Amino acid sequence: MPETSVDLSGQWDGEFSYPAGEGPVTPFVATLVQRGNSVTGNISEPDLHLPGATAEATFVGVVTGEAVDFTKTYRKVVWGYVHPVDYVGQIREKGNVIAGVWSLLDMNGRFEMRRHATRELAEEREAEIEIER
Q1: Number of alpha carbons in the 13 Å side-chain half-sphere of residue 102
Q2: What are the strands, taking DSSP E only, across 1-133?
Q3: Which of 33, 72, 75, 112 has a beta carbon 3.0–4.6 Å from 59's, enabling a disulfide?
Q4: Is 109 helix (H, G, I), strand (E, B) or coil?
Q5: Are the CB atoms for 60 and 70 separated by under 8 Å?
Q6: Could you give the domains of the chain?
Q7: Percent of the chain whose pLDDT exceeds 90
Q8: What's the predicted TM-score (pTM) here?
């Protein structure tokens, strides 16, 4: 199984949307840990059923080349958060973006997540590496 050329470990900011605008665009924060082709982590997002509360989830999945596939499982089983959610995405922008689709039962939507570090910091790091060469 080919490994990705970048380590996805770290903090990520993201959002997911529902099909045909059936729900709000929902922001989330994810912490990823990659070990070889395995990826695990945690996700925090607003709880859509309890305003002001946070829904917490864990996930486990695989990275194959530039593809990421993981399953999110909510920690507390409360109304609306019973079933696991599957995510399938592509790694883009030199490992700083993962974008794709999520699916839950007969529903699916889009998601995108970006590394927590700002683009400016990433560009500065790349420039420093080029200077050192």
Answers
A1: 22
A2: 10-16, 26-35, 38-46, 54-64, 67-74, 85-92, 97-104, 107-115
A3: 72
A4: strand
A5: yes
A6: 10-132 (2.40.128.120)
A7: 61
A8: 0.81
Q: Which two tokens stand for residue 127?
A: 């420039």
Maximum C-alpha span of the chain: 55
What is the rounded radius of gyration, in angstroms, for the C-alpha atoms of the chain? Answer: 16
Residue 117 contacts residue 95 (beta carbons within 8 Å): no
The rounded percent of the chain whose pLDDT value lies above 70 is 80
One-letter amino acid of 60: V
- Rounded CA-CA distance 4/22 in Å is 34
Residue 120 burial (CB count, 10 A): 8
At 33, the amino acid letter reads V
Q: How far is CA 128 from CA 1, 96, 97, 123, 132, in A?
A: 32, 17, 21, 9, 6
Per-residue CA distances from 21 to 25, 59, 96, 108, 111 (Å): 8, 25, 26, 11, 13
Helices (H), the chain: 119-132
Q: What is the C-alpha to C-alpha distance for residues 35 and 38, in angstroms, rounded to an integer?
A: 5
* Residues counted in the chain: 133
